[in-house]
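Exercise 7. Given the components listed, write out the predicted structure of the assembled complex. Treat all entries as one system.
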Amino acid sequence: MKWLIKGATFLLIACLILAALGCADEEAKEIRVGVIGPMQFQMGEHHWMGATLAADEINAAGGIKVGDEYYKIKLVQVDSNELVSPADAATAAERAITVDRVDFLMGTIRSEGAMAVQEVAMDHQTIFMVCGSSETKMSDKVAQDYARYKYWFRVTPFNNTYLGMMNFTLVGMVAQQVVAQLHTAPKLAILAEKASWTDAIVAAAQTILPTKGIQVVSEVWRPSGQADDVTAELLAIKDSGANMIMTALSGTVGIAYGRTWGELQIPAASVGINVMAQADDFWENTNEYGNYEMTLNVYARDVELTEKTAAFMDAFIAEKGQTPTYNAGTYDALYILKEAIERADSLDQDNIVAFLEETDYIGTGGRFVFDAKHDVTWGPGYVTGVGVQWQNGELKGVWPPADGSWPTGGPSVTYAGIVAYQMPPWVIDYWT
Amino acid sequence: MSVLVAYATRSFRLLREEVFVLPARTVFLLICILLLLFPLISQEPFILRVFILAGIFAIFAASWDLLSGFTGQINFGHALFFGVAAYTAALLNWNLGLAPWATIPLGAAAAVLAGLVVGIPCLRLRGTYLAFATLAFPLILLGVVYAIPKITYGELGIYGIEPLAGSRVASYYIAIPSMIVLGFVMWKITDSKIGLVFHAIREDEVTARASGINTTRYKLLAFCLSGLFAGIAGGLYAHFVKAASPSTLELLLSFQVIIWAVFGGIATIYGPMAGVLILYPLTEFVLIRYLAVPSETRLLIFASIVLLVLLFMPQGLTTWLRDRTEKICPRCKLQNLAWRRKCRVCTAELG
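Answer.
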């Protein structure tokens, strides 16, 4: 009898071990995605939160189907430390690829860090989807050396060229308001932080905007991205007689600008890019002087860019208590990757690249289609972004206009939740 | 054959009489051998990357020690030499297509020139004033880098230059032997008459001058030598990461080198090198990979380790260890094992 009990126990243990091994084998079927960003800062947190939401949804629905099998997504958080030391980003990327064995990378914010990560990812032929840098030099490399750089894609934001085009579109919209409400010809001053990404925008503004009937003040004000006082610049702009200011600001100078602009009631409507004004805390950080500040953005809380936007927005705000910034584009990036893997029906990087290039995906930010340089396409019918304005403590979508008009033609674009642009009252008082 | 035997015999005697007699030298030799054999144990790209960068930064930290540790000319802007060489090497490779074997020495030459440029105006300054003056130079160059983006590619830097070698292992076998050889050369310099003068300048410059030493010339020499070695490190770095960016000139790097040097023990050459070889891999992968420390607490642990070491070992880690294992002969000033009673050379009582 004893041998029977012993034999049964042995069999039971063997079955348990086999079952455990089977489970382990089951669990091993995962796709590892590295989310790389400055995790100590809001940008990195939004990278992570966007990807986490997408991964949870995809895994809850079964995972990613390759052949007859389903793979779960395993996210790996990679702290790039790029805001402090961009060189750390390359080491972090290599650690993620070679030690943590991630199959894909997505994220980054600072151009210098993103370019360093691009080199490492391309060395290892690993697909890297940028969700934070607009630097065109990265996509130019795809055109220059396709065989090496084909594994690189940009999901958010659009590249510098598209950013410039959208910026000018917003400027055009405000210029129309200047003519209509101030009864004067638009005269624009440019305030752009001293950084390479703004150089092309400034140069293009000086060339293109005068042909559109907008007079551009010859002097350009270029504060540091970290400047905490732009009073002198703003007073000089006031003296120049400009009734509009086009901003190109990504650093903390955007807060100093918004606060001083409202506090001094500079008689010029503000429009352009102010990354700090995209964040929820801009209102408090500017002591509410940032009212009427306008900037381009990827998302706006009440604007439904697609049918998927509202659900994503609600989920993100519920989890994080903040409106997502463009860094949360990792959400769309993960879905785009999932679709490409499933269409490729393979985990081979080269195969997936071929199918990523054919992406035509409606995400939370719009319709994602990559161009020949693997940049997300911007324009009517694609990803458009949204112009947002602070109106009494709320960041409202004000562009594309509710009538759906697009200045360069093309299909009309209308989004639910767009409200009318508001000219700052002190600007109206000064000019009328 | 007899020549080979003679060399082998001499080498063995040298090892027995000069290396194995002191634990610090034996450990140093063992670490060198281990580092050289490491790729036979693992060729994992990330670990090799960390060791290559640690090797490059070890040269850089030792070059700071050569200037600031030995002559007392505290340099808060040492990244200048590193950045000048990195940018020179990158620009020469990018624009003229020169290979790394040419760009790295030329980058080092540019760093020597930078040493002169910094050294000449700073000769009149001492202490805090000198430290803050040196701090200004990399910031000025950073401004220049941003001001002429058509040449320097501004804040993005120059990306995509030729790699140091075709493979990670080959890069390893360039960086690590470079570290060992250059470290040894720097140590020999400090052990020579020049090193003695450097010491004298640090301890009492007026007395050194009164003794007939042209301290101005020696201080300039220290700036140039330090620039040379830091420049080689900068060139190696640029070609290894295939980029030269403004981060090579940033304050963070200038301060980091001081932390490594002070942690390891200044005025030793090997101390700062040990500091880098311990702290860099520790923060880059040991804490995260083997001790599962979350990345956000990495900096906190790094700071705690440095603080604790400096609290209990104010002279630095290697100096603390050396003082407990070695003793200086009062007569001939040679190092001896701490537990010896008589000097290994002059047989004087060690006390």
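Discussion: The two ends of chain A are 105 Å apart (CA to CA). Chain A touches chain B through 28 residues (CB under 8 Å).
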